[in-house]
Specification:
It contains 28 helices and 28 strands. A hairpin with a 5-residue loop joins strand 24 and strand 25. It is α+β, with helices and mostly antiparallel strands and about 850 residues long. The N and C termini lie far apart (about 55 Å).
Length: about 850
């Protein structure tokens, strides 16, 4: 529909014309249960009353609504004919008065794609669960509104629901006369309103805070999930992190939490990690762990809880005007999530995870042809949807980490405090944040912003070491370059504050830092004068302590040291930084994939940080799948399988490394020894001391067996009977699609591409099972079908499903020049395709081209 993709220019024109006073929204979701009526989508009644002002009486504008039908419309008491003013996505508003009241009575559709009001039927007990998800612009699928972040207003919701249900919204609610009514919100944007309804399991707690002036703040806390997950729900740990976070942010922000209660809902088939709806944060229910997981999973959940909590101030209390400044909330929250995790919880090593995992996401995104400045040019809502990416989140957070070092932590936090107080319940742009930081730090933020926020691309920093005749450091310099494979329009060299660490082996054989200097790197070459005269190093680590955002390279001597002694590095952050640098070199075709795999097999078993270990497992799998030369893949798969099996057997019983190696074995198993062990662990004929094969691990073991033809439909049906839950169904669907059969692949393709019968979660599961690295020849015929289908899919399906299909089914496993040529041919023939669609294809093309370069590098190493 032409009106769905709201442009920035349209939003600016509307914001200049209108201001919104408040909404009253009445939803009737009793139709969520029972049989659906008619042949169309299952719908619910939505009645919206919105009061707004127009500063040019007589002017025209529009309201947003995506709905199958509108029953009645009135503007300022005048009935309007829906067929004349509603086109399926917009309501035309003519001859506006100074003060206006719009009433819209519509039939809106329940969603199965996680957008709007999502309806989920639990296969375990048949119960129905509802929740809303709106960012960036899907509240218009639930009620009529002005869908843009800078038209804030207050909201009053009321909901009619089945008698046995509970309903939650942003404000506190109570039920009377069969209707749930909720307290009026503070002025907020449409995209962070929320409704959750159903027979959810609900746990209560409370938070209290007494401030220095004696005032007391009490916040009711709640946590909810499906009834089927209640036995696994560790709400006490969620509440612990929540209270620690609230203490931390109150200490640092000096602004009391402004939204009353604080509920956290873990909901099914969720597209995101979480969403910062004030008073009612929603999370994907996979954060409730059905089986044993490592500390890294708990740390990740705590980080997300704290990330969303930071949004209560930065994003909800103060909101960007338009999605250009999306980073203002996401980068800040991403930084604050880790900052608070380290400062307030048991996860004191969270910066290691940030350096190893979050930055990897940023580095990848920043080298794609779609890379963009942190302050991006967001022309419309489709642009906004795609810009929830590694640059907006992780690069922005990395840059904020640098900013804290640049202006000082005290000045940064004081700037945040002034920003909240000055702009509470309002909207801002980048300049508003920079101005308060200039006030508190006394520094000119303009040059910093131009270098770091308004340019794209990642720099690489490489040490150059010249030794004196005496064998000491004569000169040590840092050479800065633009990315090895950077878009030509992004050659920026930036100022960096970095630490340079010198390392040598000790008598005990450990690799330790013995000298360190901080230096401002600016330009192509910077001499580190403080390290002249130091003992000759075996390893030079640029960006030691992870102070800046860059790719780190090594001189030849340092790389040789890492090849032999990486496991001897005792500092876990330094080790994580070296692993990250080696992975970036692999992706940049500077280190053969077989060498990276060899380093993982040699040293990963000595890794003490469980999050780093699990990241190494993911990277090793990716190196084999995408960057290894085709004629070495079989050898590499055998080595990884044998290595995973060896490490699993050697791991301490019952420990986290044992669980991590078991999961890695499931990811790489291909030989009979590995597959035979998995079969034995499933049927009980094999045991590994300390390894508990719980239900989640059973599914992990079944997928490689299914992919290698060792677990047929009957086996998977039996496992689903054992685990007849929503989670079990997703696992079964993925395993079914993984089977090595042409008929299976054809069915999976049809279910995802030719039909919209699957929910978002089952689309995701089917795609994950379809694309198996061991089945390249089997899925090769779908490359041509992919290019024939994607424009139609993009036009007909929701943007979320479109993104899943275009990204997930790109023929990356048919990694040849022919596929690259076919991609280029499609791009050439479809210059007029939707920009967001073209961006996704361009990104996939870049990944493929990078993989082919990596394969060439690896092949050369094997000659």
């Amino acid at each position: 529909m032409p009106g769905e993709n709201l442009s920035r220019d349209e939003a600016r024109e509307r914001a200049a014309l209108l201001s919104v006073d408040g909404y009253e929204v009445s939803l009737d979701v009793r139709s969520a249960t029972g049989a659906a009526e008619g042949d169309g989508p299952r719908t619910f009644r939505s009645v919206t009353t919105v009061r707004f002002r127009c500063n040019e009486p007589g002017a025209s504008s529009f309201a947003d609504l995506i709905a199958p039908s509108v029953t009645a419309l009135s503007l300022n008491g005048r009935d309007l004919d829906p067929s004349e003013v509603f086109d399926g996505s917009r309501i035309a508003l003519e001859d506006l008065a100074a003060d206006n009241e719009l009433v819209v009575d519509a039939q809106c559709a329940y969603s199965r794609t996680g957008e709007g009001l999502h309806r989920f039927v639990d296969p375990e007990d048949g119960e129905v669960y509802l929740y809303t998800q709106y960012e960036p612009a899907d509240s218009r699928r639930v009620f009529a509104n002005f869908e843009q972040p800078d038209l804030k207003a207050t909201f009053r919701f009321e909901v009619r629901a089945p008698e046995e249900w509970t309903v939650w919204s942003n404000g506190a609610g109570e039920r009377a006369d069969g209707v749930w009514r909720f307290a009026e919100t503070k002025p907020i944007s449409t995209y962070i309103t929320c409704v959750v309804a159903g027979p959810y399991h609900y746990v209560r707690d409370s938070y209290e805070r007494v401030f220095e002036d004696g005032t007391r703040l009490e916040i009711p806390l709640g946590a909810l999930c499906r009834k089927g997950l209640a036995p696994h729900f560790d709400a006490d740990d969620v509440f612990l992190v929540t209270k620690q976070g609230l203490d931390f942010f109150h200490d640092h922000f000096d602004y009391p939490y402004p939204f009353g209660k604080y509920d956290q809902a873990f909901v099914p088939e969720y597209n995101l990690g979480a969403m910062e709806n004030p008073g009612l944060v929603t999370f994907r229910e996979e954060f409730i762990f059905r089986g044993k997981v490592t500390r890294a999973s708990y740390e990740g959940r705590a980080n997300v809880v704290l990330h969303e909590m930071a949004h209560m101030w930065f994003g909800d209390l103060v909101t960007m005007e338009w999605w250009d400044d999306l980073w203002l909330k996401e980068s800040f929250a991403d930084f604050m999530g880790t900052f608070a995790n380290v400062g307030a919880t048991r996860f004191k090593d969270a910066w290691i995870t940030f350096a190893n995992r979050r930055k990897a996401w940023a580095y990848r995104a920043d080298q794609l042809p779609s890379t963009h400045p942190i302050t991006a040019d967001i022309r419309d809502l489709e642009d906004a949807k795609l810009n929830f990416d590694g640059i907006t989140y992780a690069k922005g957070a990395s840059v904020l980490k640098q900013l804290v070092a640049y202006v000082g932590q005290d000045a940064f936090l004081e700037g945040a405090r002034r920003y909240f107080k000055r702009h509470a319940y309002g909207n801002t742009r980048l300049g508003d944040l920079l101005s308060v930081l200039e006030e508190t730090s006394g520094r000119d933020m303009g040059a910093w912003a131009r270098s770091w926020l308004q340019t794209a691309g990642v720099n690489s920093l490489t040490p150059q070491v010249l030794l004196s005749a005496e064998g000491r450091v004569g000169e040590l310099a840092v050479v800065q370059e633009a990315a090895v494979i950077a878009p030509a329009e992004h050659p920026e060299l930036r100022p960096h504050r970095v630490a340079v660490g010198l390392y040598r082996r000790t008598g005990e054989g450990t690799l330790e830092r013995y000298a360190r200097a901080e230096v401002d790197v600016d330009g192509p070459r910077t001499v580190v004068a403080e390290l002249a005269g130091a003992e000759a190093p075996e390893l030079v680590l640029v960006n030691d302590d992870d102070l800046t955002y860059c790719k780190t390279r090594f001189d030849e001597n340092s790389l040789a040291t890492l090849r032999d002694h990486l496991g001897a590095l005792t500092d876990p952050l330094a080790r994580a930084l070296c692993w990250s640098a080696l992975w970036n070199m692999t992706r940049d075709a500077l280190l053969p994939a077989r060498d990276f795999v060899g380093l993982v097999l040699r040293f990963a078993g000595r890794e003490s940080d469980i999050g780093v270990l699990q990241m190494l497992h993911a990277w090793a799998s990716s190196a084999l799948t995408h960057y290894a030369a085709p004629d070495w893949r079989e050898t590499g798969a055998r080595l990884l399988g044998e290595g995973a099996l060896r490490e699993l057997r050697d791991a301490a019983p019952g420990g986290e490394p044992q669980l991590a190696w078991a999961r890695f074995l499931a990811a790489v198993a291909s030989g009979e020894d590995e597959l035979g062990l998995l079969r034995g662990l499933l049927d009980g004929t094999e045991k590994i001391e300390g390894l508990e094969v719980d239900q989640e691990l059973r599914w992990a073991f079944l997928e490689p067996l299914a992919a290698h033809g060792d677990a047929d439909e009957g086996v998977l049906a039996a496992e689903l009977a054992r685990d007849d839950t929503a989670s079990g169904k997703r696992h079964q669907v993925r395993c079914l699609a993984a089977r090595p059969s042409a008929a299976v692949k054809a069915q999976a393709w049809a279910q995802v591409v030719e039909s919209d019968g699957l929910s978002n979660a089952l689309v995701e599961a089917t795609i994950a099972g379809f694309a198996q690295a061991s089945q390249r020849e089997l899925i090769a015929p779908y490359a041509e079908k992919y290019f024939a289908a994607i424009e139609r899919v993009w036009a007909e399906r929701s943007i979320q499903i479109g993104m899943d299909v275009v990204r997930g089914l790109f023929p990356s496993l048919r990694d040849s020049q022919d596929t690259l040529d076919a991609t280029d041919a499609w791009l050439s023939a479809h210059e007029g395709a939707a920009p967001a669609l073209r961006r996704l294809v361009l990104e996939a093309r870049d990944d493929l081209a990078r993989a082919l370069r990596g394969q060439a590098c690896d092949a050369a190493a094997g000659r």
